[in-house]
Specification:
It contains seven helices and nine strands; from the N terminus they run αααββαβαβαββαβββ. The chain has 240 residues and is α/β, with parallel strands linked by helices. The chain is globular, with a radius of gyration of 16 Å.
Length: 240
């Protein structure tokens, strides 16, 4: 089994206010494949938020992978994006986005920009997206792709997302697409009361966790077993 098929096996368990975002090209040659992906991989598996379905039906996923993988961009598995990193399987992007319960006016932080695809999906739904990528080359490429496609509400930073983005915090929602072995405290601190964070937590056995910040603390729900690349940087520094 190829590594990508294996990732799928484990991971199978990233549009209102669209006027704010320059529209992606819906007449590209992959529109039919994209519509099929939405029906067969998302609706059929229970994704129902109309904002998420509209966004996934609009963002040209093939623009976020290299030419070599474009023919597979709407297939039901993750794909390589270089630097030993991956763009997540479409279902996982949709599921995590749906769990954020976005309605359109949010400012969202993403940790783990990768290709920029998840950020584009978020930008179709919410007001402003701040996304951080620890590998400089990926951050630069994602920034260029998002600019080329007209996603002006996405702000890309190269750096360690463990620390969040304090200058523009707090956020209505936070999505983490690399797995730390604990939830980073700076991210909890940068979430608004009422805000939601979705984060894969763990080393070998990871769980997708949703945290909701309340006036009294943080409520935690374990959603699914998942397999994400590890969060690097400060997340891997031993804690005392
Ligand atoms: N969301 C991405 C997309 O749509 O293409 C896919 C993310 S990929 C599964 C995880 C990404 O998290 C990788 O690009 C990796 O370099 C990045 N990453 C890992 N640790 C990080 C950290 N501490 N801060 C920011 N990014 C990190």
């Amino acid at each position: 089994m190829s590594v990508w098929r294996m990732l799928l096996a484990v991971a199978c368990l990233a549009a209102c206010e669209t006027g704010r975002v320059a529209p992606a090209n819906s007449s590209d040659g992959q529109a039919a494949a994209r519509a099929r992906m939405v029906q067969e991989q998302l609706v059929a598996r229970g994704i129902h938020d109309p904002h998420v379905l509209a966004a996934m039906g609009k963002v040209p996923r093939h623009e976020f992978v290299s030419e070599r993988y474009q023919a597979h961009a709407y297939d039901d598995y993750p794909l390589p994006i270089g630097a030993q990193q991956t763009i997540s399987q479409p279902y996982v992007v949709a599921y995590m986005t749906e769990q954020l319960q976005l309605t359109g006016d949010e400012r969202v932080l993403e940790v783990g920009t990768g290709s920029g695809y998840q950020a584009a999906v978020l930008a179709e739904i919410c007001r402003e997206v701040y996304t951080i990528e620890i590998i400089d080359a990926l951050a630069a490429r994602a920034r260029a792709t998002l600019e080329r496609l007209g996603y002006r509400t996405v702000h890309v930073r190269a750096g360690d997302g463990y620390q969040g983005w304090p200058e523009v915090a707090p956020f209505d929602a936070i999505i983490v697409t690399a797995a730390p072995d604990h939830v980073p405290q700076p991210l909890i601190d940068q979430l608004k009361v009422g805000g939601r964070m979705i984060v894969p937590v763990g080393e070998v056995n990871q769980s997708l966790v949703r945290l909701t910040k309340t006036a009294d603390g943080v409520r935690e729900e374990r959603l699914l077993p998942v397999r994400f690349v590890p969060m690097t940087g400060a997340a891997q520094t031993p804690r005392h």
